[in-house]
Amino acid sequence: MMADPEIDDTLDETLDDSVWSLGIYDAHCHPTDTMDVVPEIPSRRIRTLTIMATKAEDQELVAQVAREYPDRVVPSFGWHPWFSHRLWDDMKPGSSGVAISKKEHYQSVLTNEPTDEFIETLPDPKPLSQFIAETRSFLEKFPSALVGEVGLDRTFRLPNPASLIGPDDKKLSPHKVQMDHQRRVLEEQMRLAGEMDRPASVHGVGAHGVLFDSFSSLFKGHEKVVRSRRTQKRGPHDFEGDEDSDEDTGPKPFPPRICLHSFSAPPDFIKTWLNPKIPSTIYFSFSQAINVGYGYERFTEMLGLVPESRLLVESDLHIASIDMERHLAGIIHKISRERRWDPPQTVKTVGKNWINFVYGETASKALGL
């Protein structure tokens, strides 16, 4: 969920049934935002929908859809940065765990001190520890589930409640969620993903450096050893110091695999995220709605920097209508033109990558991919 993408009825690029039959996987979508269309999922030609939760209201909805369509849906449970202000951080190091008032909480986590009237329209904050416990329970019930959608967003402003909007008022308030609070909510969810050995789908808008720094702090002490060419030539056992942090065992405070969804950072960040010392496998997902529909001028450059094995596609749509198919067909055609592949090659490539991202490379090898 980057922004609320408009449904584009003008997309006319299609894919043959033979291409759909190869298996097209939507790496990131939100059909539970429009539950009355969810029954259309079985009629969609998309092999699997990776469905994201974002806030308190839709965690159970995602579970419900996953139970109803187990062969068509991989669920993801998480709390989106747009709603992170609704969580009270009782897990912060040094926290007494004693609840503070609703007013104190929102004044501490929102920018441009909100008025009492504005605060009154907001829900009572939920303890972060309670949400983490609930998410752990969902992950235990769904062994293939991801953690998502999570992340950081520097641009999002809370909407003004309808009850407070006058004829001359703007729809968006001046209030954003403090970045430190967003980071704390992200960090605890990533620690849970590491504990449960689950991949994560990550949102990042306007905070690309902060997002990378947040993960770098979690990676610290677990970085992969990158041997120089000189030591590689000697052989694996012919140099001093045979211990290798790649053999680090036990739960990590970060996910084993990360999808940076509808990736929109400057292209140089792709190189940053591909640093071989990073102990998570990083995937980059692209969508018609965000990466093409919003006219990113550097999309071609971005795509050229992503390794073939780290590329995913998504719709990022909030409705399981025919538009999902149109959007996926659009981004597949775009990637095919840019990479000079034919659509079947693109579909096979991103399909194998999706299986690697969700289930790990062992699963794809078992399938002979």
UniProtKB/TrEMBL annotation:
One of its GO terms (molecular function) is hydrolase activity, acting on ester bonds. InterPro entries: Metal_Hydrolase, Metallo-hydrolase/TatD-type, TatD-like. Residues 226-257 are annotated as: Disordered. It holds the Pfam family TatD_DNase. It comes from the Eukaryota. This is Metallo-dependent hydrolase. It comes from Orbilia blumenaviensis.
